[in-house]
């Protein structure tokens, strides 16, 4: 049974590792190519990511949300703790569909926060649980499998891992909704033309797919753990 950790079985490689790697690869490739393409063409309205963010926050009646620079590429995020939209250099100052799309998406999270959007609250509540349970899950399953009297540990590990998977699942509506809000606001406010919108959508759909890929990988992993715990795992 040690082989489960040291020599991944064929079943594990074929049904968990391979599809997860392929999906993650496709997601990264899609994101990078969409971003490379639409961070080169200038946005026809000439607006920058920062200006778009300022306009969105002002129009939403949440001018208290700050906009701050953050190091790194595609490191953009919203921090509900200090009500700050963090934008990377390229997004902050870029006058491209990619910059405006990503900046608007992060503002979408600020809007969710301001409105008490339920999936965002659920996600925030799951963060500490998911962190702890995902690190506990593997050792628990491992112990439960090699020490038969402690087999219940394997199932406890599966439940712990399921909580981490739930975190991934709850992240999906949060991310999709932020992009949906971004697309709607940018389009309706005239911050982007119909041509620009193609780039805005393309970048946000690609970013959204990275979360789908991660969630699918986590679900496959969970199914495998369930099959191991129930004794039908493919340890060939
Ligand atoms: Zn997001």
Spell out the blueprint of helices and strands:
Layout: H1 3-6, H2 10-38, H3 49-59, E1 66-70, E2 77-79, E3 84-88, H4 89-93, H5 97-114, H6 118-146, H7 151-188, H8 194-229
Parallel strand pairs: 1-3
Antiparallel strand pairs: 2-3
The chain binds zinc ion (ZN).
Zinc ion binds at residues 105, 109, 175, 178.
Structure described in brief:
The chain is mostly helical and 236 residues long.
Describe the overall structure.
The structure is a single chain. The chain has helices at 3-6, 10-38, 49-59, 89-93, 97-114, 118-146, 151-188, 194-229; strands at 66-70, 77-79, 84-88. It has 236 residues and is mostly helical. It has one domain. It has a three-stranded mixed β-sheet with strand order 1-3-2. Helix 3 (49-59) packs parallel to helix 5, helix 5 packs across helix 7 and helix 6 (118-146) packs antiparallel against helix 7 (151-188). The longest helix is centred in the C-terminal third of the chain and has 38 residues, at 151-188. The radius of gyration is 21 Å and the shape is elongated. The N and C termini lie close together (10 Å). Bound molecules: zinc ion. Zinc ion binds next to helix 5 and helix 7.
């Amino acid at each position: 049974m040690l082989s489960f950790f040291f020599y991944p079985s064929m079943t594990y490689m074929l049904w968990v590792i391979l599809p997860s790697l392929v999906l993650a690869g496709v997601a990264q490739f899609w994101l990078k190519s969409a971003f490379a393409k639409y961070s080169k063409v200038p946005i026809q309205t000439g607006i920058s990511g920062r200006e778009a963010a300022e306009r969105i926050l002002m129009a939403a009646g949440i001018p208290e949300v700050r906009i701050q620079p953050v190091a790194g590429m595609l490191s953009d995020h919203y921090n509900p703790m200090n009500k700050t939209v963090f934008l990377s250099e390229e997004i902050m100052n870029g006058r491209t569909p990619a910059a405006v799309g990503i900046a608007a998406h992060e503002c979408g999270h600020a809007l969710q926060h301001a409105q008490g959007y339920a999936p965002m609250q659920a996600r925030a509540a799951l963060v500490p649980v998911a962190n702890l349970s995902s690190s506990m899950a593997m050792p628990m399953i491992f112990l439960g499998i090699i020490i038969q009297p402690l087999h219940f540990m394997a199932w406890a590990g599966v439940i712990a891992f399921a909580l981490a998977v739930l975190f991934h699942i709850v992240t999906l509506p949060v991310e999709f909704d932020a992009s949906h809000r971004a697309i709607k606001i940018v389009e309706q406010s005239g911050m982007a033309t119909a041509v620009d919108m193609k780039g805005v959508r393309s970048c946000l759909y690609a970013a959204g797919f990275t979360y789908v890929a991660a969630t699918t990988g986590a679900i496959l992993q969970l199914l495998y753990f369930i099959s191991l715990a129930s004794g039908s795992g493919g340890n060939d």
